[in-house]
Specification:
Blueprint (H helix, E strand, L loop, with lengths): L8 E6 L2 E6 L10 H16 L5 E6 L29 H15 L1 H4 L4 E5 L2 E3 L1 H8 L2 E5 L3 E3 L13 H14 L4 E3 H7 L4 E3 L4 H13 L3 H17 L2 H15 L3 H13 L1 H9 L25
Helix pairs in contact: 2-9, 10-11
């Protein structure tokens, strides 16, 4: 596969950095299977290229990534003969583990990966960003896992960045936070006004370009080994199994029925309707109006 053959992403190398752009703006860069395969391929291509010191992951259009593409979900009719489906808990866990294997390349390649997050960074999109080594967000980015109202994250790096209490606060409700609050929470490295986001990410890539790639690799890998000693690899496997378990719930069954009858967009709006604006506040009271929207502090 060459850069010209990519359909769900674009790939370019310039000034000692590779830029991978999620390129499904009409779908808010929702992740499909092809994107997973292309991301893995591009990441290893960047790792092999001796001119590349770092990788930037970003999204085309008005969002970084709105999650997984469920548009074909309502067309699922069951497994082909002799092939796994998604009916049993073990089948579902195997399905999510296959998805994970492509994205683990973010941690496995030797070079640092910076996520450049703007607009929506939701559901699987948040998992994608947090697989990167460093996340820089726009102040007004919207980061969260609304799908937690009908499932769980099939990847779990929130815990290592935000700590247990805020991870529970956000995942147990599906509420979102702004990029500005995410930076204060340390879910992301920092946030900047949206108009300076690209510049800020490029500045960091400039710094990485000054460092020998062998040293970048050694420092990234010892940090990641530390995460593995804290159980990060095992936790990813458990996250896939827990997502499979969650998909046996009544809430998920109801959401699945709504997808098949209403379509993905309408089903998601119905799922989220009672939660109002769906935002959490890092500081101060969370008083809400009758529609569930946050009142001014």
């Amino acid at each position: 596969m060459t850069a010209d053959e990519y359909q769900s992403i674009t790939y370019e190398v310039e000034r000692n950095r590779a830029r991978i752009t999620l390129n499904r703006p009409h779908k808010l860069n929702a992740i499909d299977h092809r994107m997973e395969i292309e991301l893995e391929h591009a990441l290893w291509e960047a790792d092999t290229d001796t001119s590349v010191h770092s990788v930037i992951l970003r999204g085309a259009g008005r969002a970084f990534c709105a999650g997984y593409d469920l548009s074909g979900y309502d067309d699922y009719t069951g497994p082909a003969e002799g092939r796994r489906g998604r009916e049993s808990l073990d089948d579902a866990a195997a399905h999510y583990e296959r998805m994970q294997r492509h994205l683990r390349a973010f941690a496995d390649i030797h070079k640092p990966v910076i996520a450049q997050v703007h607009g929506y960074c939701l559901a699987g999109g948040s998992g994608l960003a947090l697989f990167c080594d460093i996340v820089i967000a726009a102040d007004d980015a919207k980061i969260g896992f609304p799908a937690g109202r009908a499932g769980t994250l099939p990847n779990q790096m929130w815990l290592y960045n935000a700590g247990p209490q805020w991870t529970k606060r956000l995942l147990l409700t599906g509420d979102c936070i702004s990029g500005l609050d995410a930076a204060e929470l340390r879910l992301v490295l920092k946030s900047v006004p949206a108009e300076y986001l690209e510049e800020e990410v490029e500045f960091l890539a400039d710094r990485f370009a000054l460092v020998d790639t062998d040293l970048l690799s050694a420092n990234k890998r010892i940090c990641n080994i530390g995460l593995e000693l804290m159980g990060s690899s095992v936790l990813q496997r458990m996250a896939a199994e827990m997502d499979a378990r969650a998909h046996q719930s009544a809430a998920t069954a109801s959401y699945d029925r709504d997808i098949r009858t209403l379509g993905v967009s309408a089903a998601s709006k119905e799922r989220d309707r009672r939660f109002g604006d769906g935002m959490a506040r890092l500081r101060g009271r969370e008083a809400r109006d009758e529609h569930g929207n946050l009142l001014a502090p």
